[in-house]
Amino acid sequence: MLSKITWDTINAFECPGHFSRFPAGIAHNASDVVDALNKAIEISCTPGSKEERKAKTRHLSADNEPFAICHCTAFPDRLIVLSSIIELAWINDDVTEELEHKQSCVKHDILTNSMSLDNLVNAQIGQFNPRETLFGLLVQKACAMDPKAATKIVEVLANYFKTFDSSDEHFVSMAKYTPYRVANSGYWISSYFIRWGIDLTLTDAEYESIRDFDFSMGAVLGLTNDYFSWEVERGQETDRPRNAVPVLMKEYGVSDPIAKTLLKGIIMDEEEKACRLKQKVLESTDSVSPAVLQYIEAIELYVGGSCYWHATAPRYKVQQ
Ligand SMILES: [Mg+2]
Predict the structure, then answer these.
(1) Average confidence (pLDDT) over 34-63
(2) What InterPro entries does this protein's entry cite (predicted)?
Protein backbone atom coordinates (compact mmCIF):
# COMPACT_ATOMS: atom_id res chain seq x y z
CA MET A 1 0.00 0.00 0.00
CA LEU A 2 1.12 3.55 -0.74
CA SER A 3 1.54 5.96 2.12
CA LYS A 4 -1.20 8.61 2.15
CA ILE A 5 0.69 11.15 4.25
CA THR A 6 1.10 13.69 1.43
CA TRP A 7 -2.20 13.41 -0.50
CA ASP A 8 -5.96 12.93 -0.10
CA THR A 9 -8.54 10.98 -2.05
CA ILE A 10 -10.95 12.98 -4.23
CA ASN A 11 -14.55 11.87 -4.51
CA ALA A 12 -14.46 11.97 -8.30
CA PHE A 13 -17.54 9.85 -8.82
CA GLU A 14 -19.81 12.77 -7.89
CA CYS A 15 -18.34 14.87 -10.70
CA PRO A 16 -20.55 15.09 -13.80
CA GLY A 17 -18.70 13.98 -16.91
CA HIS A 18 -16.20 11.82 -15.01
CA PHE A 19 -16.55 8.22 -16.10
CA SER A 20 -13.36 6.41 -15.10
CA ARG A 21 -13.62 3.41 -12.83
CA PHE A 22 -10.24 4.27 -11.28
CA PRO A 23 -9.76 6.37 -8.12
CA ALA A 24 -8.39 9.93 -7.93
CA GLY A 25 -6.42 11.91 -5.37
CA ILE A 26 -4.74 15.28 -4.88
CA ALA A 27 -1.39 16.20 -3.30
CA HIS A 28 -1.35 18.45 -0.23
CA ASN A 29 1.23 20.78 -1.84
CA ALA A 30 -0.95 21.50 -4.91
CA SER A 31 -0.66 25.27 -4.41
CA ASP A 32 3.17 25.05 -4.38
CA VAL A 33 2.93 23.16 -7.69
CA VAL A 34 0.71 25.88 -9.17
CA ASP A 35 3.18 28.60 -8.06
CA ALA A 36 6.20 26.75 -9.45
CA LEU A 37 4.48 26.09 -12.78
CA ASN A 38 3.36 29.68 -13.18
CA LYS A 39 6.96 30.80 -12.67
CA ALA A 40 8.14 28.26 -15.24
CA ILE A 41 5.47 29.46 -17.70
CA GLU A 42 6.50 33.09 -17.17
CA ILE A 43 10.14 32.30 -17.96
CA SER A 44 9.50 29.99 -20.88
CA CYS A 45 6.61 31.45 -22.89
CA THR A 46 6.45 34.56 -25.05
CA PRO A 47 4.18 37.03 -23.22
CA GLY A 48 0.72 37.12 -24.79
CA SER A 49 1.36 34.00 -26.91
CA LYS A 50 -1.13 31.21 -27.52
CA GLU A 51 1.08 28.71 -25.69
CA GLU A 52 1.25 31.00 -22.67
CA ARG A 53 -2.55 31.32 -22.57
CA LYS A 54 -3.01 27.55 -22.91
CA ALA A 55 -0.40 26.80 -20.24
CA LYS A 56 -1.86 29.32 -17.78
CA THR A 57 -5.34 27.85 -18.30
CA ARG A 58 -3.97 24.46 -17.24
CA HIS A 59 -2.80 25.79 -13.87
CA LEU A 60 -5.42 28.22 -12.65
CA SER A 61 -6.19 26.75 -9.26
CA ALA A 62 -4.73 24.38 -6.70
CA ASP A 63 -7.90 22.26 -6.45
CA ASN A 64 -7.75 21.52 -10.18
CA GLU A 65 -3.98 21.28 -10.64
CA PRO A 66 -3.40 18.41 -13.11
CA PHE A 67 0.02 17.33 -11.80
CA ALA A 68 -1.06 17.51 -8.15
CA ILE A 69 -3.97 15.24 -9.13
CA CYS A 70 -2.35 12.82 -11.59
CA HIS A 71 0.94 12.58 -9.67
CA CYS A 72 -0.64 12.92 -6.21
CA THR A 73 1.44 10.03 -4.89
CA ALA A 74 4.83 11.70 -5.56
CA PHE A 75 7.11 12.98 -2.78
CA PRO A 76 6.34 16.73 -2.49
CA ASP A 77 9.80 17.95 -3.63
CA ARG A 78 9.89 15.52 -6.55
CA LEU A 79 6.33 16.50 -7.54
CA ILE A 80 7.41 20.12 -8.12
CA VAL A 81 10.38 19.13 -10.29
CA LEU A 82 8.64 16.45 -12.35
CA SER A 83 5.62 18.74 -12.90
CA SER A 84 7.86 21.50 -14.21
CA ILE A 85 9.73 19.12 -16.55
CA ILE A 86 6.54 17.60 -17.99
CA GLU A 87 4.84 21.00 -18.26
CA LEU A 88 7.71 22.28 -20.42
CA ALA A 89 7.42 19.19 -22.63
CA TRP A 90 3.69 19.92 -22.80
CA ILE A 91 4.30 23.54 -23.86
CA ASN A 92 6.77 22.26 -26.47
CA ASP A 93 4.00 20.01 -27.78
CA ASP A 94 1.55 22.95 -27.92
CA VAL A 95 4.07 25.02 -29.90
CA THR A 96 5.31 22.30 -32.25
CA GLU A 97 1.96 20.64 -33.07
CA GLU A 98 1.18 23.69 -35.16
CA LEU A 99 4.52 23.61 -36.98
CA GLU A 100 5.20 21.63 -40.10
CA HIS A 101 6.26 18.10 -39.05
CA LYS A 102 9.94 18.33 -40.06
CA GLN A 103 10.36 21.67 -38.36
CA SER A 104 8.86 20.35 -35.13
CA CYS A 105 11.30 17.40 -35.11
CA VAL A 106 14.17 19.92 -35.14
CA LYS A 107 12.66 21.57 -32.04
CA HIS A 108 12.41 18.20 -30.26
CA ASP A 109 16.11 17.57 -30.99
CA ILE A 110 17.05 20.91 -29.43
CA LEU A 111 15.25 19.94 -26.20
CA THR A 112 17.04 16.60 -26.23
CA ASN A 113 20.39 18.40 -26.56
CA SER A 114 19.53 20.79 -23.71
CA MET A 115 19.51 17.85 -21.26
CA SER A 116 23.31 17.58 -21.41
CA LEU A 117 25.12 19.79 -18.88
CA ASP A 118 28.08 20.07 -21.27
CA ASN A 119 25.81 21.38 -24.02
CA LEU A 120 24.22 23.90 -21.65
CA VAL A 121 27.53 25.15 -20.29
CA ASN A 122 29.20 25.39 -23.70
CA ALA A 123 26.20 26.81 -25.59
CA GLN A 124 26.55 29.94 -27.69
CA ILE A 125 24.34 32.78 -26.47
CA GLY A 126 20.93 32.27 -28.08
CA GLN A 127 21.57 28.63 -28.96
CA PHE A 128 18.86 27.58 -26.50
CA ASN A 129 15.80 29.76 -25.95
CA PRO A 130 14.63 30.38 -22.34
CA ARG A 131 12.26 27.38 -22.44
CA GLU A 132 14.97 25.03 -23.66
CA THR A 133 17.47 26.37 -21.10
CA LEU A 134 15.01 25.99 -18.22
CA PHE A 135 14.10 22.49 -19.39
CA GLY A 136 17.78 21.47 -19.41
CA LEU A 137 18.33 22.96 -15.94
CA LEU A 138 15.27 21.20 -14.49
CA VAL A 139 16.44 17.86 -15.86
CA GLN A 140 19.82 18.53 -14.23
CA LYS A 141 18.01 19.29 -10.97
CA ALA A 142 16.08 16.00 -11.10
CA CYS A 143 19.34 14.14 -11.80
CA ALA A 144 21.04 15.86 -8.85
CA MET A 145 18.14 14.93 -6.55
CA ASP A 146 18.48 11.28 -7.52
CA PRO A 147 21.91 10.56 -9.09
CA LYS A 148 21.20 6.83 -9.41
CA ALA A 149 18.29 7.64 -11.74
CA ALA A 150 20.09 10.31 -13.79
CA THR A 151 20.86 8.14 -16.83
CA LYS A 152 17.34 6.74 -16.94
CA ILE A 153 15.66 10.17 -16.62
CA VAL A 154 17.58 11.48 -19.64
CA GLU A 155 17.00 8.24 -21.57
CA VAL A 156 13.22 8.27 -20.97
CA LEU A 157 12.87 11.92 -21.98
CA ALA A 158 15.14 11.53 -25.04
CA ASN A 159 13.09 8.54 -26.15
CA TYR A 160 9.91 10.58 -25.75
CA PHE A 161 11.23 13.37 -27.97
CA LYS A 162 12.35 10.82 -30.55
CA THR A 163 9.06 8.91 -30.71
CA PHE A 164 6.06 11.01 -29.62
CA ASP A 165 5.85 12.98 -32.86
CA SER A 166 7.72 10.59 -35.13
CA SER A 167 4.95 10.07 -37.69
CA ASP A 168 3.00 12.47 -39.88
CA GLU A 169 0.61 9.70 -40.87
CA HIS A 170 -3.13 10.33 -40.97
CA PHE A 171 -4.31 7.22 -39.15
CA VAL A 172 -7.41 5.48 -40.49
CA SER A 173 -7.70 2.60 -38.02
CA MET A 174 -7.74 2.43 -34.24
CA ALA A 175 -5.54 -0.67 -34.33
CA LYS A 176 -2.72 1.45 -35.76
CA TYR A 177 -3.56 4.69 -34.03
CA THR A 178 -3.82 3.47 -30.42
CA PRO A 179 -0.21 2.21 -29.96
CA TYR A 180 1.08 5.43 -31.52
CA ARG A 181 -1.15 7.49 -29.25
CA VAL A 182 0.16 5.79 -26.09
CA ALA A 183 3.65 7.21 -26.81
CA ASN A 184 2.32 10.42 -28.33
CA SER A 185 0.27 11.20 -25.21
CA GLY A 186 3.42 11.12 -23.10
CA TYR A 187 2.36 8.02 -21.19
CA TRP A 188 5.83 6.52 -21.09
CA ILE A 189 7.35 9.65 -19.53
CA SER A 190 4.45 10.16 -17.15
CA SER A 191 4.40 6.55 -16.01
CA TYR A 192 8.19 6.67 -15.52
CA PHE A 193 7.79 9.83 -13.41
CA ILE A 194 5.00 8.14 -11.43
CA ARG A 195 7.67 5.61 -10.37
CA TRP A 196 10.40 8.22 -9.92
CA GLY A 197 8.01 10.34 -7.81
CA ILE A 198 7.81 7.59 -5.20
CA ASP A 199 11.39 6.37 -5.69
CA LEU A 200 10.18 3.08 -7.09
CA THR A 201 12.30 0.93 -9.37
CA LEU A 202 10.85 -2.13 -11.04
CA THR A 203 13.17 -4.95 -12.04
CA ASP A 204 12.97 -6.09 -15.67
CA ALA A 205 11.02 -9.17 -14.57
CA GLU A 206 8.60 -7.07 -12.51
CA TYR A 207 8.01 -4.71 -15.41
CA GLU A 208 7.55 -7.62 -17.80
CA SER A 209 4.80 -9.00 -15.55
CA ILE A 210 2.76 -5.80 -15.88
CA ARG A 211 3.70 -4.80 -19.44
CA ASP A 212 0.26 -5.58 -20.95
CA PHE A 213 -1.57 -3.92 -18.06
CA ASP A 214 0.64 -0.85 -18.42
CA PHE A 215 0.02 -0.58 -22.16
CA SER A 216 -3.71 -0.91 -21.61
CA MET A 217 -3.63 1.89 -19.01
CA GLY A 218 -1.65 3.99 -21.52
CA ALA A 219 -4.38 3.45 -24.12
CA VAL A 220 -7.03 4.55 -21.61
CA LEU A 221 -4.97 7.64 -20.78
CA GLY A 222 -4.37 8.75 -24.38
CA LEU A 223 -7.90 8.04 -25.58
CA THR A 224 -9.44 9.79 -22.56
CA ASN A 225 -7.52 12.92 -23.53
CA ASP A 226 -8.86 12.56 -27.08
CA TYR A 227 -12.42 12.23 -25.79
CA PHE A 228 -12.29 15.40 -23.71
CA SER A 229 -10.09 17.50 -26.00
CA TRP A 230 -11.87 16.87 -29.30
CA GLU A 231 -14.16 19.93 -29.04
CA VAL A 232 -11.08 22.14 -28.65
CA GLU A 233 -8.92 20.33 -31.20
CA ARG A 234 -11.43 20.01 -34.04
CA GLY A 235 -10.75 23.55 -35.23
CA GLN A 236 -6.97 23.48 -34.84
CA GLU A 237 -4.71 23.86 -37.83
CA THR A 238 -2.26 20.97 -38.01
CA ASP A 239 -0.90 18.65 -40.69
CA ARG A 240 -1.19 15.69 -38.29
CA PRO A 241 -4.35 15.56 -36.14
CA ARG A 242 -3.84 13.44 -33.06
CA ASN A 243 -7.29 12.44 -31.90
CA ALA A 244 -9.25 9.18 -32.10
CA VAL A 245 -12.49 10.93 -33.14
CA PRO A 246 -11.42 11.61 -36.77
CA VAL A 247 -9.83 8.13 -36.90
CA LEU A 248 -13.16 6.54 -35.92
CA MET A 249 -15.05 8.79 -38.35
CA LYS A 250 -12.89 7.49 -41.19
CA GLU A 251 -12.77 3.87 -40.03
CA TYR A 252 -16.53 3.52 -39.60
CA GLY A 253 -17.82 6.31 -41.86
CA VAL A 254 -19.71 8.03 -39.02
CA SER A 255 -20.25 11.65 -37.94
CA ASP A 256 -18.25 13.11 -35.08
CA PRO A 257 -20.94 12.93 -32.31
CA ILE A 258 -21.29 9.21 -33.06
CA ALA A 259 -17.52 8.73 -33.19
CA LYS A 260 -17.21 10.46 -29.80
CA THR A 261 -19.81 8.18 -28.23
CA LEU A 262 -18.08 5.20 -29.80
CA LEU A 263 -14.79 6.40 -28.33
CA LYS A 264 -16.24 6.55 -24.81
CA GLY A 265 -17.33 2.93 -25.17
CA ILE A 266 -13.86 1.95 -26.40
CA ILE A 267 -12.25 3.64 -23.38
CA MET A 268 -14.59 1.88 -20.96
CA ASP A 269 -13.88 -1.47 -22.64
CA GLU A 270 -10.14 -0.76 -22.36
CA GLU A 271 -10.51 0.02 -18.65
CA GLU A 272 -12.26 -3.30 -18.21
CA LYS A 273 -9.43 -5.01 -20.09
CA ALA A 274 -6.83 -3.29 -17.86
CA CYS A 275 -8.67 -4.60 -14.79
CA ARG A 276 -8.65 -8.14 -16.18
CA LEU A 277 -4.92 -7.85 -16.91
CA LYS A 278 -4.29 -6.58 -13.40
CA GLN A 279 -6.23 -9.51 -11.97
CA LYS A 280 -4.09 -11.83 -14.06
CA VAL A 281 -0.93 -10.30 -12.56
CA LEU A 282 -2.30 -10.60 -9.02
CA GLU A 283 -3.23 -14.25 -9.53
CA SER A 284 -0.08 -15.24 -11.42
CA THR A 285 2.12 -15.88 -8.39
CA ASP A 286 1.66 -16.48 -4.68
CA SER A 287 3.31 -13.21 -3.74
CA VAL A 288 3.32 -10.20 -6.04
CA SER A 289 6.14 -7.84 -5.05
CA PRO A 290 5.30 -4.70 -3.03
CA ALA A 291 6.88 -2.62 -5.85
CA VAL A 292 4.46 -4.00 -8.44
CA LEU A 293 1.49 -3.45 -6.11
CA GLN A 294 2.60 0.12 -5.42
CA TYR A 295 2.99 0.87 -9.12
CA ILE A 296 -0.45 -0.52 -9.95
CA GLU A 297 -2.01 1.59 -7.20
CA ALA A 298 -0.18 4.76 -8.31
CA ILE A 299 -0.91 4.30 -12.01
CA GLU A 300 -4.61 3.74 -11.30
CA LEU A 301 -4.63 7.07 -9.42
CA TYR A 302 -2.88 8.65 -12.39
CA VAL A 303 -5.38 7.38 -14.96
CA GLY A 304 -8.45 7.98 -12.74
CA GLY A 305 -7.12 11.42 -11.78
CA SER A 306 -6.54 12.28 -15.42
CA CYS A 307 -10.18 11.56 -16.29
CA TYR A 308 -11.34 13.62 -13.31
CA TRP A 309 -9.07 16.51 -14.30
CA HIS A 310 -10.21 16.46 -17.93
CA ALA A 311 -13.87 16.37 -16.82
CA THR A 312 -13.37 19.44 -14.62
CA ALA A 313 -10.63 21.45 -16.41
CA PRO A 314 -11.47 24.91 -17.78
CA ARG A 315 -9.14 24.11 -20.73
CA TYR A 316 -11.68 21.67 -22.14
CA LYS A 317 -14.80 23.69 -21.44
CA VAL A 318 -14.18 25.82 -24.54
CA GLN A 319 -16.89 25.48 -27.22
CA GLN A 320 -18.74 22.76 -25.33
MG1 LIG B 1 -5.68 16.07 -27.09
Answers:
(1) 95
(2) Isoprenoid_synthase_dom_sf
